[in-house]
Design goal:
The complex is a heterodimer of chains A (350) and B (264). Chain A is mostly helical. Chain A is 73% helix and 1% strand. In chain A, a hairpin with a 2-residue loop joins β1 and β2. In chain B, a hairpin with a 6-residue loop joins β11 and β12. The chains are: A mainly alpha (350), B alpha/beta (264).
C-alpha cells in the first residue's frame, strides 16, 4: 500500500533541522581537522621543549626526516610522545563511542562504561591476565574484553525485571556490579607484591604513560572499527532510544542490535582499559556534549562523540603530563576533574 | 490480510488467550472489546510477532508470520501504542521519520530518501502536525503527542494497523479526529485496522466488526448490532447496561445502569 503524496506538501516549508549525511560529514571533517591541530600542539608540549619549526617539519614528513631535531628530541617525539597521543586518542574515542551507544541502547543518559561497572570488569580481567599470563601481552586486552562482556551482561540481567529494564534499576545494578568488582580488585591487589601496588593504583585511575608499542595498533584498530560498526547501527539505535517495544514494532531486530552493541562496546572498553586503566567520565561527558551541540540522532552523535572523545583525552593527558612536569598525574584524575563539574552543569541545564 | 487461527498464549502458568481466531479484512475496522484482563492487549501484541503464541497460527497474506523478516513485517503491520517515555530530545519530524525505518535500503546507517520525507510530510498534514514538525516531542501536549504516534504509524504505509487503546488519553474531539484518520486509511486505501478499546460507544460508531473477549476467550464476533446486546454485555461485564439506538446515527448506544447509592 502506498500513500498518495499530495502536491501541496512540497510547498509547505518544514523547519528542517534534522540530521543529514552532509551535516554529519561536515561535522566529522571539522572534528578531524581539530584533532590534527590538537595532536600537533600536544606533540610540542611536554617537559622537554621541542623547537616548533623543526618538529612541524619532521611531523609533516611522517618521521622520514629529522629536520633540525637532535636524536634525543627525535626519539622523544616519535618514540614517546606520538604513541602516547595516539593511545590517548584511541582510548578517548573508544570510551566515548561505548558511552554513546550504551546510552542509546539502554535509554539512559547516565549509562557509561565506568558507571555501569564495565570498566571495572575489564580491569579485573586485565589484572588476572597480568597475574597469570604476565608474559603474554595480548592476554590483557583479551581478558579485559571477557571481563567487560561478563560485567555488561551481569548489569543487564540484574537490571531487567519482569517488566523490562528500567533506567533506575540499571543504575542501581551498575552500582552493585561496580562495588562488587571493586572489592575483587582490592582482593587481587593484595596478592601482588608491594612494589607493583603503586603503579597499579596509578593504572587503575587511568594512566597513559604505559603506552606499549605492541598494544597501540590493536587499540587504534578497535577504536576505529568499533566506532564504524556502531555508527552503522545508529538508525536502529535511534529507534531503541524510544524503547525496545517501539523499535521492535518499527522493524528493528532488537536482540541482534543489542548483542552487537554489547560485544562491540565491551571490545572498546576492554582494549582501552587494558592499555590505560579506567579513565572515567569520558563516556558520560563527551556523548552529552555531542548530543547537546548536534542533536540526539546517533548517526551524527556517535561518530562525533568518537572524535570528540579522542580530542578530550589528548587534551586531558597533555594537561596531566605538563601541569606538574616533570612529574605526572594519572589522566583519569584530570578527566574526572573536568568531567564531574561539567556533568553537574549539563545536568542542571537539561 | 492478517489472520489468527486458534491462538493460545500462556504466561508461565496463566493462560492469557485461549484458542482465539480472528480475521482482519482490507477496508474494515475491527474493534476488540472486553473487560480488563480479557487478553485483548496480549492478543494484539502477538499479532505482529512480539509475543510468541503457545499454540495456533498467525498468517500474514496467507503465509505464516515466522517466515517474514522483522523489517518485512514492519512494512505490513504497524502498531499504535500509548505514547512511550521520551528520554532524549527528538523533534516531531524525526519521530515521524522513524516510521520509515523498515523502508531504508540499509537498516543501520540508512539516510532518509526523498520519498521518506514526502511521506512524512503528507502524514504530518493528515494529522494536522505540520506547524509542530520542528518542535520537540517533549514540548507537545498529550493529544498532540498521541497524534504524532499515529502519524509515525501511518508513515510506515503498513496496510494492517493495530491500535492499543489509542484514545485512552484523548479528549472527545481528538478521539474523533484520530479514529476518523484510521477509518479513512481503511476506506480509501484498503487498510485493515484492529482497535483495542474500552469505549463501547466509540467502538459502536467506527467499527465494522466487533470481537468481544472475556477471560482469554472470544465470546462473540459480529457486527455492532450482533455484539452490542444488553444480555451479552451484562454477561461479559457483570453489570446491567441499557442498549438503545443512537438518536442520530442509529448505531447501538450503551449506557451502564449504575447501582451506586449516593448518601445525601
Amino acid at each position: 500500500m502506498t500513500v498518495t503524496v499530495s502536491d501541496t506538501s512540497t510547498a509547505i516549508r518544514l523547519r528542517e533541522n534534522r540530521v543529514t549525511l552532509q551535516k554529519t560529514v561536515t561535522a566529522c571533517l571539522g572534528l578531524i581537522c581539530a584533532l590534527g591541530v590538537v595532536v600537533v600542539i600536544a606533540a610540542l608540549l611536554g617537559s622537554e621543549k621541542l623547537p616548533v619549526g623543526d618538529t612541524l617539519c619532521s611531523l609533516v614528513s611522517f618521521g622520514t626526516r629529522q629536520c633540525g631535531l637532535t636524536n634525543d628530541q627525535f626519539d622523544i617525539l616519535f618514540q614517546i610522545r606520538l604513541p602516547r597521543i595516539f593511545l590517548a586518542a584511541a582510548v578517548g574515542g573508544s570510551l566515548a563511542t561505548a558511552g554513546a551507544s550504551y546510552q542509546a541502547l539502554l535509554r539512559n543518559p547516565l549509562a557509561e562504561p565506568y558507571l555501569l561497572g564495565v570498566s571495572n570488569g575489564a580491569a579485573v580481567g586485565t589484572m588476572l591476565a597480568l597475574l597469570f599470563f604476565g608474559k603474554m601481552e595480548w592476554s590483557r586486552p583479551l581478558m579485559a574484553f571477557v571481563g567487560a562482556l561478563i560485567a555488561t551482561f551481569a548489569v543487564y540481567r540484574l537490571a531487567r525485571g519482569k517488566v523490562g529494564a528500567s533506567p533506575e534499576r540499571l543504575i542501581l545494578a551498575g552500582v552493585i556490579v561496580t562495588t562488587f568488582l571493586s572489592s575483587v580488585i582490592v582482593f587481587v591487589t593484595t596478592l601482588m607484591d608491594a612494589t607493583r601496588i603503586r603503579s597499579f593504583t596509578f593504572w587503575l585511575l587511568g594512566d597513559l604513560s604505559g603506552a606499549t608499542k605492541a598494544l597501540l595498533p590493536l587499540a587504534i584498530a578497535i577504536s576505529i572499527g568499533g566506532a564504524l560498526v556502531l555508527t552503522f547501527n545508529a538508525r536502529s539505535l535511534n529507534l531503541l532510544m524510544l524503547g525496545e517495544r517501539d523499535a521492535f514494532d518499527l522493524g528493528v531486530e532488537v536482540s541482534r542490535v543489542r548483542t552487537v552493541v554489547f560485544v562491540v562496546a565491551s571490545l572498546l572498553v576492554g582494549s582501552s582499559v587494558a592499555a590505560s586503566g579506567s579513565v572515567g567520565y569520558v563516556g558520560l561527558v563527551v556523548p552529552h556534549l555531542a548530543r547537546l551541540s548536534l542533536g540526539s540522532d546517533n548517526r551524527i552523535s556517535i561518530p562525533a562523540a568518537a572524535l570528540t572523545g579522542a580530542l578530550f583525552v589528548i587534551v586531558a593527558d597533555t594537561v596531566a603530563r605538563t601541569i606538574i612536569a616533570p612529574r605526572e598525574l594519572p589522566v583519569g584524575a584530570i578527566t574526572a576533574l573536568i568531567g564531574a563539574p561539567l556533568f553537574i552543569y549539563l545536568l542542571k541545564r537539561a | 490480510m492478517l489472520e489468527a487461527r486458534e491462538l493460545t498464549i500462556k504466561y508461565e502458568d496463566r493462560t492469557a488467550v485461549q484458542a482465539v481466531s480472528l480475521m482482519l479484512q482490507p477496508g474494515t475496522v475491527t474493534a476488540l472489546i472486553g473487560p480488563n484482563g480479557a487478553g485483548k492487549s496480549t492478543l494484539l501484541r502477538s499479532l505482529n510477532g512480539q509475543l510468541i503464541p503457545t499454540a495456533g497460527l498467525i498468517l500474514l497474506n496467507d503465509q505464516p508470520i515466522e517466515q517474514f523478516s522483522r523489517r518485512a513485517i514492519a512494512k505490513q503491520i504497524t502498531v499504535v501504542a500509548q505514547e512511550a517515555e521520551l528520554r532524549f530530545p527528538i523533534t516531531v519530524l524525526e519521530f515521524v521519520l522513524g516510521g520509515r525505518f523498515a523502508w531504508a535500503a540499509n537498516s543501520g546507517w540508512g539516510w532518509e530518501s526523498e520519498r521518506d520525507l514526502q511521506v512524512a510530510k503528507t502524514v504530518l498534514i493528515e494529522t494536522d502536525l505540520t506547524d509542530l514538525s520542528g518542535r520537540l516531542m517533549s514540548e507537545l501536549s498529550g493529544g498532540e503527542r498521541q497524534r504524532a504516534v499515529l502519524a509515525r504509524a501511518l508513515a510506515t504505509e503498513a496496510p494492517v494497523l493495530l491500535l492499543d487503546e489509542p484514545t485512552a488519553n484523548l479528549d472527545m474531539s481528538h478521539q474523533a479526529i484520530l479514529l476518523s484518520l484510521v477509518r479513512q486509511r481503511c476506506d480509501s486505501l484498503g487498510a485493515a485496522a484492529l482497535v483495542v478499546t474500552h469505549d463501547l460507544n466509540l467502538a459502536a460508531q467506527f467499527a465494522d466488526i466487533v470481537v468481544l473477549m472475556k477471560a482469554g476467550r472470544s465470546i462473540k464476533v459480529g457486527n455492532t448490532g450482533e455484539v452490542f446486546t444488553a444480555e451479552l454485555l451484562r454477561e461479559v461485564f457483570d453489570m446491567s447496561v441499557l442498549v438503545d439506538a443512537h438518536p442520530i446515527s442509529g448505531v447501538p448506544r450503551v449506557t451502564p445502569v449504575h447501582e451506586v447509592h449516593r448518601a445525601n
